């Protein structure tokens, strides 16, 4: 499975959306250089208050651009960085990846997928009614499907840009499905 990066985003301050940039630099074990969520320990604003020493499994947030296409059909205009992701992709089934999948980004960077983004109520503050659209109920299992992308940690740093390739390397079997982190 391979695809490409369509946008890269970061923000030095806590804010729901992240502005797009021409490139971002990934730092091994930390995340996106200059992004408020970079660090070895958890940087999620709410979770820092009660779990400040946990490892940061949310160093990089990736979202599939195909979600924006789906949301547009339902009347929601959303573009890269607006839902807080650092890397927007096209052509990669992010939600179908197993835990531990490695994503090779561009020429150097490698990130490891740690889990699903847990959508929060701030999505409704951004666009009223949008939170309900980023969940789906699986008709077979009856479980919720979370569509707001995946989280990852940086294993090998490097600079990534729009139009860089994304190559997926699956972990050894048996694969573990993604859970919320």
TrEMBL record:
Pfam families: MOSC. Signal peptide: none annotated. Residues 18-169 form the MOSC domain. It comes from the Bacteria. InterPro entries: MoCF_Sase_C, MOSC_domain, Pyrv_Knase-like_insert_dom_sf. Gene3D superfamilies: PK beta-barrel domain-like. PROSITE patterns: MOSC. This is MOSC domain-containing protein.
């Amino acid at each position: 499975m391979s695809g490409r990066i369509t946008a890269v985003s970061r923000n030095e301050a806590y804010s729901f959306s992240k502005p797009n940039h021409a490139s971002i630099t990934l730092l091994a074990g930390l995340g996106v250089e200059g992004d408020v969520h970079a660090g070895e320990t958890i940087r999620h604003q709410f979770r820092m208050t009660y779990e400040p020493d946990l490892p940061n499994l949310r160093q990089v947030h990736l979202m599939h651009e195909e979600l924006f296409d789906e949301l547009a059909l339902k009347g929601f205009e959303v573009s890269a960085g607006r839902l807080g992701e650092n890397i927007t992709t096209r052509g990669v089934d992010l939600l179908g990846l197993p835990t531990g999948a490695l994503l090779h980004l561009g020429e150097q960077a490698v990130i490891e997928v740690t889990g699903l983004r847990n959508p929060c109520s701030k999505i409704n503050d951004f666009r009223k009614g949008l939170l309900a659209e980023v969940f789906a109920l699986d008709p077979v299992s009856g479980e919720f499907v979370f569509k707001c992308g995946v989280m990852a940690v940086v294993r090998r740093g490097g600079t990534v840009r729009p139009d860089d390739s994304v190559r997926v390397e699956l972990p050894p079997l048996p694969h573990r499905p993604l859970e919320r982190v």
